[in-house]
Write a structure and sequence with these properties.
Blueprint lengths: L1 H19 L13 E11 L2 E2 L6 E6 L2 E7 L1 E3 L4 E10 L5 E8 L4 E10 L5 E2 L6 E5 L8 E6 L4 E7 L2 E6 L8 E7 L4 E4 L2 E2 L6 E2 L5 E6 L6 E10 L6 E6 L1 E2 L4 E7 L5 E6 L2 E7 L4 E7 L2 E7 L2 E7 L1 E2 L1
Parallel strand pairs: 1-9, 1-10, 13-19, 21-28
Antiparallel strand pairs: 1-2, 1-6, 3-4, 3-7, 5-6, 7-8, 11-14, 12-13, 14-17, 15-16, 15-18, 18-19, 20-22, 22-25, 23-24, 23-26, 26-27
Amino acid sequence: MKGSIIRLAILFFICTNGYGQEPEWVVEENNFEYTMSFVSFLNIDGLNLNSTSDKVGAFVNGECRGTTNLIYVKSKDRYYAYFNVFSNTLGETIHFKVYDSEKNQVTDISETVKFETNALRGNLSQAFSIASPALNNEAQLLDFSFKDIEVVNKTENDQEMVLYLNNGVNPTLLKGVFELSDGSKLFHRGQQLISGTSVLDFSSPVYLDVLSQDESMKKQWVISVRYTTRSSSIKIYKKDAVCYNGGAIKVVSDLNGGEIILFKDQIEYAKLPIVNGEVLFTDLLAGDYLLKTGDLEKNVEIILKE
């Protein structure tokens, strides 16, 4: 009985001691000719690791080829893993292990990387993700509107959105309300935006960056604000073409700062801003034209007079 208790005590000591200690991963750097570098962040079960006691190891066929603890970068207020992976052979498969010091646990990472000489994966703005489970790699802006502001109409083409607002809305102090792909973040000039809180000036097109959860993908979107157009606020005049002179279309409007787009044969022909209440398109050939501004469209025919 006494012998059994001693054996159980020894077994308990071995198990708890092995589970609780930080792994001693060692790299024999002098045995290798080439390196590959990583600037990474570590994520386990959806949470970023944030301790200098946390660490990552890179392995090839069970042999440690690179390791480091997290370090804190004050300028980014974030923890990163900077490390090199060593090899003598291109294309070797690199496996990763992550040690979570709070849980005293080592996790095997399912995603692998092929070794490339002198390659760099990740940077301070887009760090390389070492995570279990793998994080989302999509960077989509699914929807965008404004807090407490009615969006009358919205158009989207590729990664450009145009939001039509009622006349009189001040575009300089708008709070964007947005929906992103799972885990993504939205940035403007490097500053992360908070939906319904961050204030931006939309008097001119605003360029926004969507960064995927795993930071492998970044996409830029352009958000523009325009205003709905009442037909009563627009007056259109035309001058037909003659043999020695092209025709003309004049648009008179009280919507200064707006934009008039002229199409011919369904192709954009010209685009001009409304300045001092008017826009003038000149030297027009005979044919059918379409004027667009805001949500207003107007067909105009220029004929050739003899």
